[in-house]
Amino acid sequence: MNYFNLFKVAFKAIMSNKFRSFLSMLGIIIGVAAVIIMMAIGQGSKESIRGEIGKLGTNLLMVRPGGNGMMHGGVRQDPSEMQTLKVEDFEAIKAEARLVKNASPEVTAAGQVIYGSKNTTATVYGENEEYLSIKQWPVQKGVCFSKSDINKSAKVCVVGMTIVRDLFGEEAEAASALGKTIRFKSIPMRIVGVLESKGTNSWGMDQDNVIIAPYTCVMKRILAQNFLNSIQCSAVSEERSPEAIEELTAVLRRTHKLKDGVPDNFTINSQQEMMDTMSSTMDTVTLILVVAAAFSLLVAGIGIMNIMLVSVTERTKEIGLRMSVGARGIDIMLQFLIESVFISITGGLLGILLGEGGAALARSLLHMPAAVPLWSIIVSFLVCTVIGVIFGYVPARKAARMDPIEAIRYE
User: Fold this and answer.
1) Sign of the CA dihedral 351, 353, 356, 357?
2) How many CA atoms lie within 13 A of 94 on its CB side?
3) Are 303 and 24 in contact (CB under 8 A)?
4) What is the pLDDT of residues 376-385, one digit of tens each?
5) Quick check: helix, strand or coil at residue 141?
6) Domain extents for the chain?
7) Sequence-separated (6 or more) residues with CB below 8 Å from residue 218
8) Which secondary structure element, helix H or strand E, spans residue 184, and what is its range?
9) What is the tens place of the pLDDT at every residue in 158-204?
10) Closest CA to 111 of 7, 182, 198, 192
11) pLDDT in tens, 174-184
């Protein structure tokens, strides 16, 4: 058996029908390219989301009112459970939680912000002086409000660059906003600092459209409420976050006077949990997209088998002549298998190049995060080889089992 001659004959047969061979490859090209582009976008989106969450600090802990047991059918049964967090809980955390580095009580309010004749909508976050350290968010110009401002419920704030541009003009500098007084729901607030720009996150939300003020001011002057929406904390390190969660749980169960066996009326989430959840969600979405794209490879394989069956029929006399001069059934089978695998692998390689190009276009033109993992290219190559063997086997077997006499007589 001369393998070189088999490759030579197979290649000659493919080149003698270039257009038909290309049409056979087309399904593989499109299928492989679609799979690689879907995987690239899925992988890139996952890494982008993990990066965005990671910027907030992997040791971030979020305490929210209402326990997991308070939900039924996706609906919270008791609205009062959303008012379980108090300032006393925050003070207890600061006093007793040794594994919590920083903590900030949080209340939020959304509404219209006005300066002169200009206005915009924004969310005001009521926090303390440790909030910016928790979020790793530096002040670009000016300063953050102080503990004294919090004690006095001072009407001061720190704003994002979107607020500056919306209220003071597109060309306004951060420094030009300092000392200006804006109004939120008729409450005047003096700008003491402007935050560094964070831009838009992976969910398309403008992170700079924000106002941060002392939580005492927001609670008393804007919301007129005595409960917190959440408590933002940072553990002393990422590794000790699980221990910090246990410590926070013990402190809050005591301050809430919860007896043994009674479920928590609060929820504590870590940033790592959020990252894992988002990664799992993106993996599921990517898998669905890849499976949908992979069906085109199945169709392409059927197309290759169909073309190879036509080729066997057209070359029946040639098969008979080769058998009559000594070619064995295994030689004939290998010849057609080589043709099938060659078509499949060539289509796969072209599909990989097209997929890489599509991912590059998604990054440059559509500004989508798209990272092609190396293993996806290797898997695509192996899948194309397997498709060539599986769908080329039936035509090759048909050719190998022909009767030489009948084949020569075939018209």
Assistant:
1) negative
2) 13
3) yes
4) 788 877 888 8
5) strand
6) 3-52+277-409, 85-255
7) 107, 108, 109, 124, 125, 126
8) strand 181-184
9) 999 999 999 998 888 888 899 999 999 889 999 999 999 888 765 66
10) 182
11) 888 999 999 99
